[in-house]
Amino acid sequence: MSITTEIKVPYTNFPQLIAQVRPELHEAFDAVITSGRYILGPHLAQFEKEVSEFIGVGHALGFSNGTAALHVALQQMKIGAGDEVITAPNSFLASASSVALAGAEPRFADVGDDMNMDPAALEAAITPRTRAIIPVHLTGRPARMPEIMAIARKHNLLVLEDCAQAIGARRDGRMVGTWGEASAFSLHPLKNLFTFGDSGLLVTNDPELHRRLWMARSHGMSTRDVCDFWSDNNRMDELHAAFLLVHLKKLKQWTEERRSLALRYNDALRGLVKVPDEGAGEYHVYQTYMIRTDRRDQLQDFLRGKGIEALTHYRIPIHMQPAARSLGYKPDDFPAAKKLSETILSLPLYPGLTEEKQEYVQSSIRDFFRA
Q1: Which residues have CB under 8 Å from 81's CB, separation 6+?
Q2: CATH, residue 89
Q3: What is the spatial distance between Cα 62 and Cα 124, in angstroms, rounded to a whole number?
Q4: For site-directed labelling of 54, which of 152, 178, 306, 370 has its Cα 20 to 30 A away?
Q5: Are residues 261 and 230 in the same domain?
Q6: Which domain holds residue 193?
Q7: Chosen domain end from 248, 271, 298
Q8: Could you report the per-residue pLDDT of 42-69, keeping only the tens digit for each?
Q9: Band of pLDDT at residue 4, cut at 50, 70 and 90
Q10: Is 66 exposed, middle or buried, given 0-12, 13-18 or 19+ CB atoms closer than 10 A?
Q11: Which residues are registered as beta bridge partners of 204?
Q12: pLDDT confidence of residue 5
């Protein structure tokens, strides 16, 4: 194969992806703007129905974004002042900030080799004030939910899954989002199921929790005239729901494309860097393809020089963010998370990434380590 340095490989390529569904998106747009229903309309109701069937849960609610979904879920699970909620320190900060916004205190448990919460560390972090656990399915890889759920039941703790990056991921044949009392998803443009702006999703099998969440996303109103409790406005727009219905039909295909690309990367790069292999019983959806190397920063600079947009994520673990200073953690309290912050590098991976461009990324990484 002829490889030239004129090849550019962006981290993602939305125009190429959207070209696959452009007519359907235009139809969805026209349907919404001519309907006169822009909030809590039929497209949202249909999306909630179809996505709940896809995930395999009883109830789904469209939210304005994934952070709002986490925050409102905690509030309606009655988590608040005096409570502690344990999550992972190596994720996007929304998992911890939502706890603080609910009035509780975020606490952390270190992660394992899969970059997800280590059940042994979780159990060691539980205190008399612990009320809930937020496991994060980082990069689209399912966390060790059977063990986490066993610990939660042993200690009578609630579980709110952070599935922001992991729609469609499975462990032992069971979808993420179906394990805890409730589960939150992000539908941000960089997620596997996405819309053209911020949106989110909350799912649950608990009908009473669903009833409270349904009101909580709309000012706490049970009818147009009655407000049962004070709450924010966190509804998903009808236009986003219409676009998501189009993308949901492509989700399985796009996920399989991501997996094929990721497994090809794994085969090509294993031995040069640590690659994100799947464990037994895991179905990884590779929202982010993260490799690990002690020469991360040098490799990133080298790839940028070759026109390859490789990104770093979570350079500062949550427990070391300025906002978390009052929690009293030290940099080395979570050594696995700290090591990840120094070694992970995210490579371009998206449906439509050509074999030529992927081979260019792989050969460039080989060239770096040969040099």
Answers
A1: 103, 104
A2: 3.40.640.10
A3: 35
A4: 152
A5: no
A6: 18-248
A7: 248
A8: 999 999 999 999 999 999 999 999 999 9
A9: very low
A10: buried
A11: 59
A12: 52
